[in-house]
Automatic annotation (TrEMBL):
Any one GO molecular function term: hexosyltransferase activity
Keyword Ribosomal protein on entry: no
Stated name of the protein: Glycosyltransferase
Taxonomic path: Bacteria, Bacillati, Actinomycetota, Actinomycetes, Micrococcales
Location of the Glycosyltransferase 2-like domain: 31-159
Gene3D superfamilies the UniProt entry points to: Spore Coat Polysaccharide Biosynthesis Protein SpsA, Chain A
Length: 652
């Protein structure tokens, strides 16, 4: 069951009233602390997810801390939830302006063995607390992190690739996850007096989380179950989306840096922690479209604060040397005080686009075979990476940049990403990536197979329109790129089309097609579109030796994994008589056709062309036509494509 389906069932799964609060305080496993302020309607799904947990209500508590809401709605809803659900408590405080103080109030009031920090507009999966507690308890973890999924929010790209029972900063990419959405052993928090900085400020979660990471003996990461859905609100009212004031922001970052300097000695551990901030909070703010699009005054303000912080606290080359070329070049220009070149580079980076030539998109053994040659270049055609004297160089048009800064040395990763239009459900399929340098630039040949009956272990594709994207992660050319596959942003040179297909014992219909914009999509389970796509099929009636008729139907169709089982050919005869027989598959002699043959039990005039021949599967008509010997070209219908493409948005 997907996250959306779980959410829809939470309201109906509310647990019954449990034991008394005194008894519960002796056995509480988890406390969930939620800082709340003027949440309004966004609070309801959050509350539903909290009271619908698989843990009995006597084993966990929810502490809702209202930071002085004044919308006339939120405070009353909190009190109502506390009155209805025995595991819910509501605390009201004066407005502090930011989540730090209400979180601290909630932690002080918590009674559970572990304290989980949650935002008021996010969702917790039904088994999240139970599963996280089980992992944390068996490892005596100080910190437990459940898998986070994002809806319009950036989430860790590699941390959740596998379960990590026992890990640390040195053995897992923990610095990818700096949000507070984690479970902390309450005794651990008390022992080290860990508190969130209070008041209106930024990066209070970084200050808290980095100290927890540095002090923790054991961190556990639960990756085989999505525990938390981090949501970007439609009104963009999440605190993390508010505009940044450079002086205050980097003053707050300095507080986190000082925590690291206090708890570590100069060396690999300190470098590892500082490297994340140097790359994400500092160099990324000086690069790409976001920096290029700022006013000159704002550009200079960010540059001044970042450069000052870098000179004072990030001077060790071992901090930036392991980073990707796109980051090292920005850092080189900043250290050399080449502000104008930095602005020009940001414009170049902001114009970088993925262009893919789709070289293969056809069926092989019931799987869609995909292959593309992918290039990354600016709008003017300048490649992101050029081969110079045999060395791959990022932004080679820049002068006086040392090769140790501009040399590309990181492998790329790629995925097919399928997005269902109706629900925005996303599925990712990893692709094999091979670097290609035969034209003097660095490109990537990506390939893989898509099995519609089992996509990345998630089972068969749900019925609907699935738009196909290519996601490229090439660190040396900057942030991830997400592009539609097809002719809108590239080319299609594949010489074999991907035909309609019937797959599996249930004959799942899959119709690949190009949209009006020239992009690849899959129509799954739509019988009407399958009928349209099979319209060029040819039916021929043959007289049998015993005088009975047989019919062959030649169709532009792929069958695999039992997709032809249960197919029948039905022929309508005069006087409203119908005869039918099972269809058997035989080779067609060409890769873009399948021939189905059926022997019908009655005689018929093979020359008759005014009678209907129908190919059917239980409860569905797949194709209808009159016997003919004329083939026509494949002209499937073209469904419209949404005017707004899927985008990936970076969040706090």
């Amino acid at each position: 069951m997907g996250f959306a389906e779980r959410i829809s069932s939470w309201r109906e799964r509310r647990p019954a009233v449990g034991a008394s609060s005194d008894a519960a305080s002796q056995s509480l496993k988890m406390s969930v602390v939620v800082a709340v302020h003027n949440t309004g309607d966004y609070l309801e799904p959050c509350l539903a997810s909290l009271v619908g947990q698989s843990l009995p209500p006597t084993e966990y508590e929810v502490i809702l801390v209202d930071d002085g809401s004044n919308d006339g709605i939120t405070a009353a809803r909190l009190d109502h939830a506390a009155a209805v659900h025995p595991q819910v408590r509501a605390i009201h405080i004066r407005n502090s302006g930011w989540p730090g103080k209400p979180r601290n109030v909630g932690i002080d009031a918590a009674r559970g063995e572990y304290v989980y920090v949650m935002d008021h507009d996010d969702l917790l999966a039904p088994e999240a607390l139970e599963r996280m507690y089980e992992m944390a308890s068996r490892n005596h973890a100080d910190v437990v992190i459940g898998k986070i999924a994002g809806r319009g929010r950036r989430v860790p790209p590699t941390l959740f690739r596998e379960n990590r029972e026992v890990c640390s900063l040195e053995t897992a990419p923990l610095m990818e996850s700096m949000t507070p959405h984690k479970g902390f052993r309450r005794a651990f928090l008390k022992q080290h007096q860990l508190r969130f900085p209070e008041g209106r400020r930024r990066l209070e979660d970084h200050v808290f989380v980095v100290e927890a990471y540095l002090r923790a003996r054991v961190v556990s990461v639960l990756s085989d179950y999505t525990c938390y859905l981090h949501i970007a609100r439609e009104d963009e009212a999440n605190a993390g989306f508010r505009a940044i004031a450079p002086v205050a922001y980097y003053g707050n970052l300095l507080e986190a840096v000082e925590v690291v300097e206090r708890l570590t000695e100069p060396g690999p551990r300190r470098d590892l922690v500082l490297r994340r901030w140097y790359s994400v909070e500092m160099m990324r703010r000086l690069s790409g479209a976001s920096f290029a699009g700022r006013s000159p005054t704002r550009q200079r303000a960010f540059y001044t604060e970042i450069r000052r912080l870098a000179q004072d606290h990030f001077a060790r080359p071992t901090i930036w040397e392991p980073l990707a070329a796109a980051v090292r070049v920005v850092a080189e220009l900043m250290r050399a005080d080449r502000f104008d070149d930095l602005v020009a580079l940001a414009g170049f980076e902001g114009s970088l686009r993925v262009q893919a030539d789709t070289e293969a998109w056809h069926w092989e053994g019931g799987r869609l075979r995909f292959q593309a040659l992918v290039a990354v270049a600016s709008e003017s055609g300048q490649p992101a990476i050029t081969i110079v004297d045999g060395v791959p160089v990022y932004a080679a048009h820049l002068t006086d940049v040392p090769l140790e800064a501009s040399t590309a040395r990181n492998p790329a990763e790629a995925w097919l990403q399928l997005v269902r239009r109706e629900s925005r459900t996303r599925l990712r399929l990893p692709l094999e990536v091979v670097t290609v340098t035969d034209d003097g630039t660095q490109r990537y040949r990506v390939q893989g197979e898509l099995d519609p009956l089992d996509v990345a272990g998630a089972g068969p594709l749900e019925a609907g329109i699935w738009d196909v994207y290519l996601k490229l992660r090439a660190p040396d050319v900057g942030p991830d790129h997400l592009r539609r596959i097809g002719t809108e942003h590239g080319t299609v040179s594949a010489d074999r089309p991907a035909l309609p297909a019937l797959l599996g014992k249930d004959a799942l219909a899959v119709v690949p097609y190009l949209t009006e914009k020239g992009n690849l999509s899959l129509d799954v389970g739509a019988t009407s579109r399958l009928v349209e796509a099979l319209r060029p099929g040819v039916a021929t009636v043959h007289p049998g030796a015993d005088g009975a008729s047989s019919i062959t139907v030649s169709l532009p169709l792929q069958l695999a994994d039992g997709g032809g089982d249960g197919l029948r050919v039905v022929r309508a005869l005069p006087h409203e008589v119908e005869v039918s027989g099972p269809a058997t598959l035989r080779p067609a002699g060409r890769p873009d056709q399948v021939v189905l043959e059926s022997h019908l039990p009655v005689t018929a005039d093979p020359a008759a062309t005014d009678v209907l021949v129908t190919l059917s599967h239980p409860h569905r008509i797949l194709w209808s036509g009159v016997p003919t010997s004329q083939e026509s070209p494949l002209l499937p219908s073209v469904p419209p494509e949404p005017s707004v493409p899927v985008t990936e948005r970076a969040g706090g």
